[in-house]
C-alpha cells in the first residue's frame, strides 16, 4: 500500500469519525439573527458570544438571545479592517471590531458600553487594536484538521469551549458544533451479538434461541434444533420463549399460549394445556421469571400469573392491581442478585422489594423493552427511546452518549464475559458499552444565570448590588439558569430552592437539561435567597449559585408605618383612657354633688325636725347610723341629768367621749347649734311634752328640767316656742 493511499484512507476515516462526532448544528431556528457567523467568543462565565455579521447574541445553553448594540455610539474604524478581531482588557472588558466599527462589551453585565474614546486615549495596545492592525489568533492544528475533514469551505471562525467542544462559524451553514471526543456506546450491525441478545443462556453454558421454525440450542460447537417433528409433545414450531427453571428443566411456550416443560436430553415436552386450562385466558404469553424453587411468574400481553412448578397449579399474581393500574401489557421481567423482581411494562417500570411494589420515576421513556444487570449488580433498562440506568439512581442515556434514540428490542440484552452490556435495537443493530464508559462523564458543574426577569421585564445581570431589592408590587420573578453543558446537555440535572419560602430542594426535570426556568408569582414582602445547583447524571452537585432577594412591603406595611400604627394605637388608648377617667371623674363629682345636696337636704330636714318637733327621733336627726348612735348617746346622757342644773357642755363632752371643741364642731355641722343650745333645747322640749301630757305645775316642770327659777324657764321657753309655758298648755 502506497503512502498516498494510506494517507487518503486515514483522511477518509477521520472524516467519517468527525462526521459522526457532530453534536448538532445551530441555525436561525435556535435564535441566530443570521446564518453568517463571523465571531464566536467564550466569556468568563462560559457563555458564548456570537457576532452574526454585526448582530450580536448570547447562547444560554439552549437558544441564542439577541443583545442590543447601539452602533450610532460605536466609533468607526480609521480605515477598512480586513478581519473580525477581539481583544480582552482584564477579565471583564472585551474589545471587538468588525470591518467597519469598534465595540466594547462588558462581560460582567453582558451589555455593550460606549465610553470608548477615553479608554483608548491612554492605552497604546488599544490604539493599535483600534486601527485594525491586529490579527486574530491562528487556529490550532486540531481545528484545521476538523475543518478540512468536514470539507467546510465557507468557515469564518472557530473556537474551543471549556469542555473541549469546537464551535465553527460559517457563512451559510450557521454554527456547527463538534462535541469533545469521549468514549461512549457503539452501535453496529454485529449479527452474532444480535443473535446472542435474542438467546437464553442456561446453567451449562448453552444458548437457547426461539424462532418460528423451532427451538435452537448452541454450545459454541454445534447447534441442535427442537421442533414438533423430533420432540414429543410439541404441537407447533413457533416458540415464544424459553426459561430455565431452578430444577434445570426448561419452561417453553409455543403457539402463543401453549405452556409446558422440555427435557432437552430426552427431547420430551410435557404440556400443561390440559392441567391448566386457565392459561388459555392469556392471549399471548411473553416470558417467565423464576422467583424461588417452587414459583415462577409467567407474564403476557394481557396479565400475569404465578405457576407452581412442583404442583403444576396456577395462582393469581399478587401485585396485579398495583401494576395494571398503569398497564396490563408486560414486556419483560428480571430477578437481580438481591432478590428484587423488576417488571417492565408498556407504561412503566416496577420493582417488588420486601413485599412492596413501587413504580420507578424519572425515566426518559416508560415503555420498558428489556432489563439487564451489569457486573456490579446495577439494573439497566432498554426503553422505546434509548437506554436508562435504573440503580443506584436513574440516569437516561441517548445520542449524547452514542446510544441511538431508537426503540430497543423486547427481551434482547445480555452481559458479556468482559462486562460489556449489549442491547439490541428494533432495526437489528446492537448497542454495546461498558458502564464505566458512560458513568465516568459525571462531574460537578457550575451554574450561571442567563436571565432574570421582574414582572416580565429583564433585570440586568452582573449588577454590583448583591441583593435584588424590589418594591412590593414587583414580585413576579423568573430565574433562567444553565450549567452551559454543551457536550451532554441531556445529562444535566438541576435542583433549586427559595430560602424564606421553601427550604426543601426541588428537582428540575421539565427540560432536556440544557436550560432551567423557575417562576415565582406574587411573592409576599420579605427576604429570600434563591439557590440552584447542577450535576451530571445525579452525581456530585456543583457549586451553589445564589441570588439574594428583598421585596419591600408597601408603605402602609413598612416599619415606620407600623411604628406609626403602634404610636397611634397607644395614643388612642391613652386618649380613650383619659376620656374615661374624665367621664368617671365627672360622674363621681355629679354623684358626690348629689350626695352632698341630699346630705344638705337631710341636714336641713334634721335641723327642721329638731327645731319643730318636741319628740326627738335620732333616726330623723342623724343622717347616718354613726350620727344616730351619737344622738342617742347624747340624749341618754342629757336625760340622765335632766334635773341637774349644773350639767353642762363639759359633762356632755365627757359622756360623748370627745373634747369640748370636737363636740362643738360636731353639733354645729349636724344641727347648726352649740352644745349649750342643744342641752337647753332638749330640756325645753322635754318640758313641752310634760306640759302637753301631764298636769304638773309649771314650777315642778321647770325644776325637773334643771331650772331653778320660773322666770328663767318662762323666758327660755318663750324664746324657743314663741309663747309662755302656760299659753302652750292652754293651746294644747
**What structural class is derived from the secondary structure elements?**
alpha+beta
What is the helix tally?
A: 16
Largest sheet: 5 strands, mixed
User: What distance lies between the first and last C-alpha atoms, to the nearest angstrom?
Assistant: 176 Å
Helix percentage range:
25-40%
Shape: elongated
Tell me the Rg in angstroms. Answer: 57 Å
Portion of residues in beta strands equals 25-35%
Mean pLDDT value: 87
- The strands making up the biggest β-sheet line up spatially as 39-45-44-41-42
Q: Which runs of at least 5 residues are low in confidence (pLDDT < 50)?
A: 1-21
Total strands: the figure is 45
Descriptive labels:
five-stranded mixed β-sheet; elongated; four-stranded antiparallel β-sheet; 732 residues; alpha+beta; 45 strands
Please describe what this structure looks like.
The radius of gyration is 57 Å and the shape is elongated. Mean pLDDT is 87; it is low at 1-21. The chain is α+β, with helices and mostly antiparallel strands. Helix 13 (675-693) crosses helix 15 (710-721). Helix content is 27%, strand content 32%. The N and C termini lie far apart (176 Å). The strands form eleven sheets. The protein has a five-stranded mixed beta sheet with strand order 39-45-44-41-42, with no helix packed on it. Strands 1-12-11-10 form a four-stranded antiparallel beta sheet. Strands 2-3-4-5 form a four-stranded antiparallel beta sheet, with no helix packed on it. The protein contains 16 helices and 45 strands. A hairpin with a 2-residue loop joins strand 27 and strand 28 (348-353).
